[in-house]
Amino acid sequence: MPIRYDTMRIDKLLIKHYQQGIEDALGRLNGLNDIARLLEEWEEEFSGYIGTHHALALNSGTDALQTALLALQLKKGDEVIVPNVTYPAVPLAVLYAGGIPVPADCRPQDYQMDPDCAERLISKRTKGIIAVHMFGRPAPLEALMKLAKQKGLFTIEDVCQAESSEYKNRKLGSFGELSCFSFSYYKPLSSCGGGGGMLCFNDPKYRKVAELTNIWKDEAVLLEAGRRFARMYLWDLIAVKTKFKFLKDIIKSRLKTKAFFEKKLWGLGDIDFPRDGKNELTVPQVFVITLRERDRLGQYLQNIGIQWQHPYTPLHKMNIFRPFIRQDMPNSDAYERRALHLPLFSFMKEEEASFIVDAVVKFFASSPKTRP
């Protein structure tokens, strides 16, 4: 499937819209620094896109996750089940909110949290589950939410890596009690480096989390939270709103590159990678493959200038989280040992994607021992 995008045309359009966005925003501020109305408009627009009734624009996805935990009244010593394969900000947010993160092993087929492993970790102190949609892929939402309902637990969706991905024709982030988003630089919908995040929800009672951003409103609330949470900064707001106009094209480009990689790499050597089920739509952050000769392929790609990413270090391999480990993590170990994240970004050129595929093909052609 050919991947053809005029990236120069897109870049010029972005620059033009950035300039217009800055002028419009500054003009509406009338020399003041209160951007509350601009934030409210973006919150309404984004919540409508995701399919929730409310949203709060914050400084980062990590802040969104911590405020979600505080809104759900997590207490000191309460346990929250998190994926063992995830970004460290997830368990850290639980710790910052006063709770205890309890990591669960991943499923071997897609590296998402295994609901069976999560169920075995539930104790009298467990208060909730954070369903993290890793690598843009939907977590096993139905199983996790059913488990949470049976056990009387809350469910938070962490959509920081999966904005615009879908499950059963609904946007991820529209299922849990609260959902968290991030707009850091490598995401499909991103700022220009500063970050920014969103907290989305349907129940209006969670609007109280806005109190955590108003340092002059209620000292008791802030003392209990332990800190003040900042709202999204003006430049990040302008950047995200500008790119939102191009989001359909951004998604289309990433889906085409994903389809290209899937077509060209499927059946090559012992490479494996997850694929969407009939009810899933993954807008990828990267393209994750696994193979026995991961290190050799990685060195080969690096030697010819392809900057691939190492897998996430599972939480059970990080000293700070080892005290919270309560089960073996064989699938996480396999992911760390065999996974390689190939680059995939918005408006990736056909020749760039082909260069990566051709390099992988040449590696297998010159390495007969890697064949299954």
Task: Report on this structure.
This protein is α/β, with parallel strands linked by helices. The protein has 2 domains: 7-244, Aspartate Aminotransferase, domain 2 (3-Layer(aba) Sandwich), CATH 3.40.640; 247-370, Aspartate Aminotransferase, domain 1 (Alpha-Beta Complex). Helices cover 39% and strands 14% of the residues. Strands 1-9-8-5-4-2-3 form a 7-stranded mixed β-sheet, with helices on both faces. A 3-stranded antiparallel β-sheet has the order 7-6-10, with no helix packed on it. Strands 11-12 form a two-stranded antiparallel ribbon. α1 crosses α8 (234-244), α3 (61-71) crosses α4 (89-96) and α9 (247-265) runs parallel beside α12. The protein is globular and about 65 Å long. Residues 1-9 have low confidence and may be disordered.
Write a concise synopsis of the structure shown:
With 372 residues, this protein is of the alpha/beta class.
CATH architectural category of the largest domain: 3-Layer(aba) Sandwich
Structural class: alpha/beta
Helical region count?
12
Strand ordering within the main sheet: 1-9-8-5-4-2-3
In quaternary terms, these chains amount to single chain
Portion of residues within helices? 25-40%
Distance between the termini: 27 Å
SSE arrangement, N to C:
HHEHEHEHEHEEEEEHHHEEHHEH
Count of the domains: 2
Principal-axes geometry comes out as globular
- Which topology of the largest domain does CATH recognise? Aspartate Aminotransferase, domain 2
> Mean of the pLDDT scores?
89
- Strand portion: 5-15%
The CATH superfamily of the largest domain is identified as Type I PLP-dependent aspartate aminotransferase-like (Major domain)
Q: Rounded to an integer, what's the Rg over CA atoms?
A: 21 Å
